[in-house]
Design a protein that fits this description.
single chain; 351 residues; alpha+beta; Nuclear Transport Factor 2, Chain: A; eight-stranded antiparallel sheet; 6 helices; 36% strand
C-alpha cells in the first residue's frame, strides 16, 4: 500500500453523487479482488453502487476514505477527506490570498491508478445558490488546474462590494492629471441621503427581544451576513460583546456568539497560535465562542452542532506603517484547529 500521510475527516465533507447502498454479496467478485490487490490492509464499512461504478467506503490504517472501481473490476482512484491544516501551506495561502468572499466546502486527497496523487479543493462563494468551484493542487501545494473565477477579478469585485464609497485616485501619481472617471463625476451634493440600514423581519426582531431584551445594555445593531443570516450585535449589562444569529429563510435563531475577555482565552487555542506564529509578532484581536440554539439541528445529520470558536489574529505589514493583515481561524469545541477563513464574517467584523 502506498503511504498516505495527510488523511483525516473533514468537518464539511464533499458531496457525493447519486449512489445506492448495497450489501457486499451484491458486489462482483472481480471488484472485491481488485480491492484486495490495491490495498494490503483495510476494513470496508459500506458498499455503494453508482452508474458504472462500485464504491467502497473503507478504513485504511485508521484513516477513512473511499475507493472507486469500474463495473468490470478495475480500480480507478481513492479519495480521502483531509483537514485544512493537514494541507501544504502553499495551497492554503493561495486560497486565502486569492479568494476573499469564498469558503472551503471540502478538501480531499486523491490517489489514482496511474500513480498520480493530488489534492482537490472545492470552494464556493458565500451566499445563496452559488456554484461549487474546483481547484487541483500537487502534493507540494502548487496549483495545477482550476475552474474557479480569475483571482484578480474576485479580489477586485470583493473590494468594490465592501468599499462602495471608495473613490479612484483623483490625481495620477505618474502624470499628476485628473483621472477620466473624476472628470465625468458630477459635483457631490452636501446633503446626501442616509444609506438605509439593514433591518430584520418583525418575527426575528420579536424573538430577539424575547430572548435578550432584558439583558441588552447597548444595541442591538443589525447586519446582514452572507445574504443568509440576520445578526444582532449587542452588549449586556456586564459590557460583554455578543451576537445573536438568525436564519433569514426560516426566521429562526441559529446561534449566539460571546466575545471572551483575554483572561478567558482558551489555553489550547493560545498554544496552537503560539506554535504557528512562532518568532513572529502578532496580536489576538478577538476570540468568540459560538453556541447553537437548543432547538437548532444540522440539516445534514439532524443533530445539534457542537460549539466552536472564531479567532482573529493581526500582524503589522512591513513597510506599510500601521496597516494590519488578519488571519481568521476556527476551532472546534476541544480547541482543535478546523479551518481558515479568507474574509471577515460581515461588515462589523474586524476589517
Amino acid at each position: 500500500m502506498k503511504k498516505i500521510v495527510l488523511l483525516a475527516l473533514m468537518v464539511l465533507p464533499l458531496i457525493a453523487g447519486a449512489q445506492t447502498k448495497i450489501k457486499e454479496t451484491a458486489v462482483p467478485r472481480s471488484v472485491l479482488m481488485a480491492l484486495e490487490k490495491t490495498y494490503d490492509s483495510y476494513k470496508v464499512r459500506t458498499w455503494y453502487q453508482a452508474p458504472g461504478q462500485y464504491i467502497a467506503e473503507l478504513v485504511i490504517d485508521g484513516q477513512n476514505g473511499r475507493s472507486y472501481f469500474t463495473a468490470g473490476g478495475d480500480w480507478q482512484y481513492s479519495t480521502f477527506p483531509v483537514k485544512v491544516e493537514e494541507c501544504p501551506t502553499m495551497m492554503n495561502t493561495y486560497f486565502v490570498n486569492n479568494y476573499p468572499g469564498y469558503r472551503i466546502k471540502g478538501i480531499e486527497y486523491v490517489e489514482e491508478m496511474n500513480g498520480d496523487n493530488y489534492y482537490r479543493m472545492i470552494i464556493i462563494k458565500k451566499g445563496i445558490a452559488e456554484n461549487d468551484c474546483e481547484m487541483v493542487f500537487d502534493t507540494r501545494g502548487k496549483l495545477m488546474k482550476s475552474n474557479a473565477p480569475d483571482p484578480e477579478a474576485v479580489k477586485r469585485d470583493y473590494y468594490t462590494h465592501n468599499n462602495p464609497d471608495a473613490d479612484d485616485e483623483k490625481v495620477s501619481k505618474k502624470t499628476g492629471t485628473e483621472s477620466s472617471r473624476d472628470r465625468r463625476r458630477p459635483t457631490p451634493k452636501v446633503d446626501e441621503p442616509q444609506v438605509e440600514q439593514f433591518a430584520p423581519s418583525a418575527k426575528i426582531a420579536e424573538q430577539f427581544d424575547k430572548a435578550y431584551g432584558k439583558r441588552v445594555k447597548y444595541g442591538p445593531e443589525w447586519v446582514l451576513r452572507d445574504d443568509e443570516y440576520a445578526v444582532a450585535y449587542f452588549s449586556n449589562a456586564q459590557k460583554v460583546e455578543m451576537e445573536a444569529v438568525y436564519s433569514i429563510a426560516s426566521e429562526l435563531p441559529i446561534m449566539t456568539g460571546k466575545t471572551l475577555d483575554k483572561d478567558r482565552y482558551n489555553s489550547s487555542i493560545k498554544k496552537y497560535i503560539e506554535e504557528k506564529f512562532n518568532g513572529e509578532r502578532y496580536k489576538i484581536e478577538k476570540m468568540v465562542v459560538y453556541e447553537y440554539n437548543s432547538k437548532y439541528r444540522d440539516p445534514v445529520d439532524n443533530k445539534k452542532p457542537k460549539p466552536y470558536t472564531y479567532v482573529v489574529v493581526s500582524q503589522k505589514v512591513r513597510g506599510l506603517g500601521n496597516k494590519l493583515k488578519y488571519t481568521r481561524m476556527e476551532f472546534d469545541a476541544g480547541g482543535n484547529f478546523t479551518g481558515l477563513l479568507a474574509q471577515p464574517l460581515d461588515k462589523n467584523d474586524i476589517q
